[in-house]
Amino acid sequence: MISSKVIAGAVPWSVPQTGPSEKVSSRTPLSPSPVPGRLIFRQESINALLRTLSARDPYTCLHSGRVTNLALAFARALGLTSRELETLTNAGYLHDIGKIGVSDNILLKPGPLTVDERQAIEAHPLIGYEIVEPLGLTTEEKNLILLHHEHWNGHGYPYGLKGEEIPFLVRILALADVFDALTSDRPYRRAYTTPQALAEIELQAGEQFDPELTQKFIPLVKSLKMQMICHTSPASSGLPGLDKRGFHDPAPFTPDYLVLQSLGSKSG
Predict the structure, then answer these.
(1) CA dist 51 → 61, 65, 127, 182, 251 (Å)
(2) CA dihedral in degrees (199, 206, 24, 262; nearest 10)?
(3) How far apart are CA 167 and CA 197, in angstroms?
(4) Residues with Cβ < 8 Å from 135, sequence gap 6 or more?
(5) Which residue(s) pair with 10 in the sheet?
(6) Do 157 and 124 meet the contact criterion of CB atoms below 8 Å apart?
(7) What is the 3-state secondary structure (H, E, C) of the chain?
């Protein structure tokens, strides 16, 4: 396993020495939510991390918000449970938090990456896992951060998981993540159009992505206008502000709507 201590451009975090938190072949029951007091602390900690990410790397912060919104739209279309939506919300905003441990010279490089630079980029899920470890996230939430670059064909990273070894929610987030990355301007290329991005994703069905989910994701995106995607935030807790493109700015992070309802019922 690659240690971030020896990767160019990465901060000296120690990386997990075990495999992913769990391997699942289907949608398994999710871990219980934290107790209210612990949950409030966790949400405030997430808020602080998002502000740090926004200051350190505004693109990644906004990207994470858009990815989360699109993943939630997809999850709702698939009929996922409220608990699964909560998991996607809590971890989606933080899925790229490990990039704060990668040098700007690498993240913003306009040309091809060297082998060492590629290794630095590929360390960010492991760095992110270490950053969120003290927050008390659930197993499923931590897996979204750790495993979102695993590929269906087993050629992803950091563990080379294959097929249904990759948790179901991770496979959903991966599609939203790549779609937003492709349709965003980057230092090394111009943004793809939506049709171009969807064509590329379709080519990767069964390779990078779950083929069944891909066939459901593509028509969903075609049916949505981007403004609709932007407004798929977790509802009644109040929405974050909009950036200049009309997307929700994920900072400040508001506690999940189910959490607020739970706390309200206890205090009432």
Answers:
(1) 9, 13, 17, 24, 6
(2) 10
(3) 24
(4) 42, 45, 46
(5) 102
(6) no
(7) CCCHHHCCCECCCCCCCCCCCCCCCCCCCCCCCCCHHHHHHHHHHHHHHHHHHHHHCHHHHHHHHHHHHHHHHHHHHCCCCHHHHHHHHHHHCCCCHHHHHECHHHHCCCCCCCHHHHHHHHCHHHHHHHHHHHHCCCHHHHHHHHHCCCCCCCCCCCCCCCHHHCCHHHHHHHHHHHHHHHCCCECCECCCCHHHHHHHHHHCECCCECHHHHHHHHHHHHHCCHHHHHCCCCCCCCCCCECCCCCECCCCCCCCHHHHHHHHHHHC
Measure Cα distances from 4 to 79, 88, 150, 266 in Å: 38, 26, 18, 43
d(CA 74, CA 18): 31
pTM of the model: 0.73
Which structural domains are found in the chain, ordered by start? Answer: 34-267 (1.10.3210.10)
86 touches 44 (CB < 8 A): no
Token code pair at residue 184: 């965003």
Note the pLDDT tens digit of each residue in 172-230. Answer: 999 999 999 999 888 778 889 999 999 999 999 999 999 999 999 999 999 886 544 54
Q: Residues for the chain: how many in total?
A: 268
